[in-house]
Amino acid sequence: MDSLEWVDRTYVQKHKSEDPSTLRAMYYPNLRMYSTHGDTSKQKAPVDAALSFLFRFGRRAAMSLAIYMLSFLPIAGRFVLPAASFYAFKEAVGPVPATIVFGSGLFLPRKYLVIFLSSYFSSRSLMRELLEPYFSRIRFTKEQKRLWFRDREGLLFGFGVGFYLFLKIPLLGVLIYGIAEASTAYLVTKITDPPPSPAYSEKFAESQLRWTNKHAFLRLPLANLDANNAETEDSKHHQIKTQAPLGKKFS
Questions:
Q1: Which of 169, 91, 167 is nearest to 129 (CA)?
Q2: 151 pLDDT exceeds 80?
Q3: 136 or 71, greater pLDDT
Q4: CB neighbours of 250 closer than 8 A, spacing ≥ 6?
Q5: Which long-range contacts (CB under 8 A, 24 or more apart) does 227-230 make?
Q6: Which of 11, 8, 31 lies closest to 201, judged by CA?
Q7: Cα–Cα separations (whole angstroms), residue 140 to 8, 25, 136, 204, 242
Q8: Most confident of 95-104, 109-118, 187-196
Q9: C or N: which end of the chain has fewer Cβ atoms within 10 Å?
Q10: What pLDDT band is residue 24 in, cutting at 50, 70 and 90?
Q11: Under 8 Å between Cβ of 165 and 126
């Protein structure tokens, strides 16, 4: 949250000479008012939460071990890891790059595919950890959260895998994690809408499942990533009708 406040403050300073009516609403003032505990009546007991955590990661570990063991089968084994790489990578970057990964996997040694799959799933876990301050306040159902990640999967993979590789560097990795947190706060302002106050947040999570300005944002040059922040008539069309104005404009 401190990083998000810094992002808002930096945005204001960067655009202080521009027309205030074209600036986006702030994220931090409203988001800080959301409780991180949610509805306590729906929270799991500590034992149930621990068992759920162990079951989730135990299942992943079992699947990974099964795939690795199947890769030693005669004849068919050589296709197991490439096929697993294709299946995992297809949703993130599309079928063409995933097919290239599959084809490369038929010739690369097994250890490189294991490293690739490990990096892919570790980067996904890293992104979920970095985004936890956001999701602990904006409450999504399990299915909504899955759709939220799926609609942004390619960008989140590219963002997460870069930081994951830097985090593997001894000593430097600790410093990189702080940069990753600050960068994630900036990323949130690009792939989500400014949140309304908690009193008007009933349907906000549902409105965020689709990244409405995805194509416009991905076409922007790196030097002008704020260009899509102006509240145009087109962007207003995508706001949910039941919410109050998304925060106070800077003036």
A1: 167
A2: yes
A3: 136
A4: 12, 20, 23, 26
A5: 228/190, 229/11, 229/23, 229/24, 229/189, 230/22, 230/23, 230/24
A6: 31
A7: 24, 22, 9, 9, 18
A8: 187-196
A9: C
A10: confident
A11: no
